[in-house]
Design brief:
By secondary structure, the protein is α/β, with parallel strands linked by helices. The protein has ten helices and seven strands. Strands 3-2-1-6-4-7-5 form a seven-stranded parallel β-sheet. Helix 1 links the parallel strand 1 and strand 2. The radius of gyration is 20 Å and the shape is elongated.
Length: 246
């Protein structure tokens, strides 16, 4: 299986040494697409380039974006890494269990998301992922360095990619994440309009909706059907409002 469409996404990395080391391990294991979300350091600094050694081209070709949704544009699958337990129905998985899923549609972009060195990903950022990975570590010292975490995941992905295609699960056509995000925005707008959620509760309620739909792994046609329902509801509300005014 090919790793060509897989993006390593770093959210607000602060250490140029870490970024350079990540470029190096990416090249070690055959990954080349690095995306930096609002980086807090110069990824082309002398420190980063020295750590990258023979992987400087990965730093030079890295894509810089302002937000996580921009980093995920066009992706159909996304897994987020987290070092903490979450009060979600979506379980935490090990890299070996979860990461092969990213390669089920090798011709389409997928993303593996890593958070900040000091505090990881926010709840809002985690909501953009379908699945969550936590690397098991000793209870004596739980916290992993960012570059080490990326290296472990890149190794697991490379091992999976070397397996015959017959060992990969059957492919399923998932909707791109930006298509699903447009549905979430439309849903939130309608729920605010009908009073199901209020501005001060919308974020927490929508988080639950996102978790539910992300577990369902929606296909493009299913998202279109859901958006069609919302459009019909909006039309019905407008029609009823017009009739009451007559």
């Amino acid at each position: 299986m090919s790793l060509a469409g897989l993006r390593i996404v770093l959210v607000e990395p602060a250490g140029p040494i870490n970024v350079g080391a990540i470029a190096r391990v990416m090249k070690n294991f055959g990954l080349h697409n690095l995306v930096l979300v609002n980086p807090q350091c110069d990824h082309l600094s002398a420190e980063a380039l020295v750590m990258a050694v023979h992987a400087k081209e990965i730093l030079e070709s890295a894509v810089l974006v302002a937000t996580l949704p921009e980093a995920l544009h066009g992706c159909v699958r996304a897994i987020a890494t987290t070092g903490r337990f979450r009060s979600l129905q979506t379980p935490l998985e090990t890299p070996r269990t979860a990461l092969p899923w990213l390669l089920e549609e090798p011709e389409k972009p997928a993303a593996l998301i890593f958070g900040r060195e000091d505090r990881g990903l926010t709840n809002e950022e985690l909501n953009y992922a379908h699945r969550f990975v936590c690397i098991p570590t000793s209870q004596d010292y739980l916290i992993l360095n960012l570059a080490t975490a990326v290296a472990i995941c890149c190794y697991e992905l490379s091992q999976c990619a070397e397996q015959p295609e017959t060992q990969i699960l059957p492919q399923t056509e998932l909707a791109p994440l930006d298509v699903v995000e447009a549905y979430y925005q439309q849903l939130e707008s309608l729920l605010l309009k009908i009073g199901y959620v209020y501005p001060h509760t919308a974020a927490s309620r929508m988080e639950k909706f996102r978790q539910m739909y992300n577990r369902a792994h929606l296909k493009t046609g299913e998202v279109a059907m859901l958006r069609g329902i919302l459009q019909q509801v909006e039309w019905a509300i407008k029609s009823q409002s017009s009739s009451e005014k007559l």
